[in-house]
Write a structure and sequence with these properties.
398 residues, mainly alpha, Na+/H+ antiporter like fold, 16 helices
């Protein structure tokens, strides 16, 4: 039996997501694990819910647009000045190291550059919410390691989005059988800089409109309108909607800091139910048969991501001559994987839907492996944070 009443479906999904999310939270697991489990129960297990590409694309695009908008909102000029060059350098080095190690590791096992590039680019993303929550949970003091971790997880997803846009453009070129300069260099650059320009233009318009408005309701309507237009225009012009929304948020917060701050607060307030639906959709799209087939790829992905994050953070910290505790333990604090990674995996299916069976396979593979490994990393991640801050001596002691 398939539930066709969309209103009933949303109600059931939110109720189950809330209850099972609370259960997993009490089990010291993130609620995200619970949401994915609900999706698996409703979809692959019982087949109660079957969503078409159109519905999935709307949910994924809208949720990622909101997430990217909030990520962009953290990139204020003051924030970037406070970070300084060391934090930015470490972020870039560990992101590139993670991308290269996962890409090469997966390629050596599968002999498939498409799978390697996709998993490599997605694996760069770190979960800021899970990392910060773990720091709060173990009552970490504002020491050098804790400050550096907080700064880097704020930048990490932005770098991941840029790497993903480049990687998926290359994958499209490989699937299309075209390896010309135009397809491998010009098109990715157009997609990146076009998305940046779109986000800046709509962000400027949004800031001007917000100045003329009063009240939280008006700010909410204007903000959502800006995000939806950014996503819509990006899809029309074949640009990266997530990159455009990130620069939309960055432009908005820097042009009107006080109004922008209110906007981000309001958007974050409406995210929880949207987040639940988003992760349930990821669970719906998980393919148990493919998970069994790709189990070794998943294990290699986990191992390469662990090596990439820890070695990249060590090399980056050594490069900028950070304090010894940062060099030793920063990588352990950057292992969480959640919203952005799952969202990018879901985007693969949409981006490659026009590339036949191979495109559909890559989309299903990305969602299955990333959703499954997210469960692992959301267990490993908080443990890594606690161990790192304990070893660094930055935990409050009775």
């Amino acid at each position: 039996m398939v539930i066709e009443n969309i209103i009933l479906l949303i109600g059931i999904a939110l109720s189950l997501g809330f209850v099972i999310g609370k259960i997993t939270h009490h089990l010291r697991l993130t609620a995200i694990v619970g949401y994915i489990v609900v999706g698996i129960i409703l979809g692959p297990t019982t087949h109660l819910v079957e969503l078409g590409y159109y519905e999935i694309n709307i949910i994924v695009s809208f949720t990622l647009g909101l997430i990217a908008f909030i990520i962009g909102g953290s990139f204020t000029i003051d924030f970037l000045k406070r970070l300084g060059k060391p934090s930015i350098a470490i972020t870039i080095i560990q992101s590139l190291a993670t991308f290269l190690i996962i890409t090469l590791g997966v390629f050596l096992f599968t002999h498939n550059w498409n799978i390697g590039l996709l998993l490599g680019s997605i694996g760069v993303a770190t979960a800021p919410a899970g990392t910060i929550a773990a720091l709060h949970d173990c009552k970490a003091r504002r020491g050098t390691l804790s400050k550096m971790t907080t700064a880097i997880v704020g930048l990490d997803d932005g770098v991941a989005i840029i790497i993903f846009v480049i990687a998926i453009a290359i994958v499209k070129a490989l699937l299309g059988g075209s390896l010309s300069i135009s397809s491998t260099i010009v098109k990715p650059l157009v997609e990146i800089f076009g998305a940046i320009a779109l986000g800046i233009v709509i962000g400027a318009i949004l800031a001007y409109s917000a100045k003329k408005s009063r009240g939280r309701e008006s700010i909410l309507i204007i903000s959502l309108a800006g995000i939806l237009m950014c996503i819509g225009f990006a899809e029309i012009f074949n640009l990266s909607s997530i990159l455009a929304c990130m620069f939309l948020g960055a432009t908005f917060i820097n042009l009107v800091p006080s109004i922008g701050g209110t906007s981000f607060e309001i958007i974050e307030g409406i995210l929880p139910p949207i987040y639940i639906i988003f992760f349930i959709v990821a669970g719906l799209e998980l393919r148990p048969d493919l998970l069994i087939k790709m189990s070794m790829v998943g294990i290699i992905y986990i191992g390469c991501r662990l090596i990439g994050k820890m070695s990249g953070a060590f090399i980056g910290s050594k490069w900028v001559r950070a304090e010894p505790v940062v060099q030793k333990y920063l990588g352990l604090a950057l292992l969480s994987q959640a919203g952005v990674a799952v969202g990018l995996a879901c985007m693969v299916a949409g981006e490659l839907s026009s590339y036949g069976k191979e495109g559909a396979y890559l989309g299903a593979m990305a969602i299955t492996i990333i959703a499954a490994t997210t469960v692992v990393f959301e267990i490993i991640g908080p443990i890594g944070v606690r161990y790192a801050v304990n070893r660094a001596g930055e935990t409050e002691r009775e």
